[in-house]
Write a structure and sequence with these properties.
alpha+beta; 4 helices; 5 strands
């Protein structure tokens, strides 16, 4: 584990080679294989300012070790937008060093700048490692998620 403080920054076009294995690690964890075309489209959208889809990364010792994607959307329950933290992944070999927390806190800061009334995300009920962090920095809601 690195002794460096986590450095969070926006993803840049040159990061694609470092982002890709982290993205694949995330998809593998959730057992959600995606066609390469979707991965390519996701990266293109992260790099295109016309989409309100944001990508950030966290570095340790100068290498990208974690990624996070988030977006803003209007809400019928709030004057300002809501912020959905869609994807969060930190390399297993570096977990426990504050990298996931740094990514989430960076999303919180971006949400505050945008006046977002809520930052929210979902994870598997059995994702105990991540939930230990989430329980410290967010409130577990009683809502049950459904999907089609």
């Amino acid at each position: 584990m690195s002794a460096d403080k986590p450095v969070v920054r926006p993803l840049q076009p040159a990061d694609k080679a470092a982002w890709s294995p982290l993205w694949q690690g995330y998809l593998t964890f959730y057992e959600e294989p995606l066609p390469d075309a979707i991965t390519d489209r996701t990266w293109a959208r992260l790099m295109d300012p016309q989409f309100d889809l944001h990508g950030i990364g966290v570095e340790a010792d100068g290498r990208l070790v974690g990624i996070c994607h988030y977006l803003f959307h209007p809400s019928t329950w709030s004057e300002g937008p809501y912020c959905y933290l869609e994807d969060l992944f930190v390399s297993p070999d570096i977990r426990g060093g504050g990298y996931g927390r740094a990514l989430i806190e960076s999303v919180y800061a971006a949400a505050d700048v945008r006046g977002a009334g809520r930052v929210y995300w979902a994870t598997q009920e059995t994702n105990d490692t991540a939930r230990r962090l989430y329980d410290r920095i967010a409130n577990l809601t009683p809502f049950v998620q459904y999907a089609r």
